[in-house]
Amino acid sequence: IVTNNETPHVFQAIQEYLGNNGSLQWIAQINCRSKTLFDAIDEVVEMGCAALYLHGGLVDDAYSRNDSKTITEWCEHARAAGIPVGVAGHAPEAHLWVNDLGIADFHAVCSFNCGTLHTGTQSPQGIGLFIDGATAPPGPPRMADRSNSASAER
């Protein structure tokens, strides 16, 4: 089961399922709109997740600010609990950046760019989709001339 940690009815369903010895393993997508990410990690680990991954909006933001320190701390905190930790992201460059950092056990890769969904603004259609020739606002920074070298500067 792959779910987020912030939708109350979803979280309650997971708590009940795991509390009743459900046989499926839970991979938690972690976000921190209502608590610190460290608290969110501790909460899902205590509930019994088999693995977790950082929400793509968090990873995209860390990438756009070149904040390897924070994302590394989050991954190390989760890994210290003895579970695999992964990352999501909406820009391939964010995944390449995290891969170069060597901090994730896996990547959760979506097949779309959610546009402005995580920045609090909306597209002309209101749901992050751009159709009929509408122009999407710029997404996360691109690394057009990035080499595949782990030593490439960012």
Brief write-up:
With 154 residues, the chain is an alpha/beta fold.
Can you give keywords for this protein?
about 150 residues, alpha/beta, 5 strands, about 15% strand, elongated
How would you describe what is shown here?
This protein is α/β, with parallel strands linked by helices and 154 residues long. Helices cover 36% and strands 13% of the residues. The protein has helices at 8-19, 37-47, 56-64, 68-80, 92-101, and strands at residues 2-4, 27-30, 51-54, 85-89, 106-109. Strands 1-2-3-4-5 form a 5-stranded parallel beta sheet. It is elongated. Mean pLDDT is 77; it is low at 122-154.
SSE topology string:
EHEHEHHEHE
The total count of strands amounts to 5
Strand order of the largest sheet: 1-2-3-4-5
Into which percent range does the helicity of residues fall? Answer: 25-40%
Show unreliable segments. Answer: 122-154
What would the principal axes of the Cα set say about the shape?
elongated
Instruction: Please identify the structural class as seen in this structure.
Output: alpha/beta
- Assembly type of the shown chains? single chain
* Spatial separation of the terminal alpha carbons: 35 Å
Biggest sheet: strands, sense, closure? 5 strands, parallel
Q: How many H/I helices? A: 5
Walk me through the topology.
Layout: E1 2-4, H1 8-19, E2 27-30, H2 37-47, E3 51-54, H3 56-64, H4 68-80, E4 85-89, H5 92-101, E5 106-109
Parallel strand pairs: 1-2, 2-3, 3-4, 4-5
Helix pairs in contact: 3-5
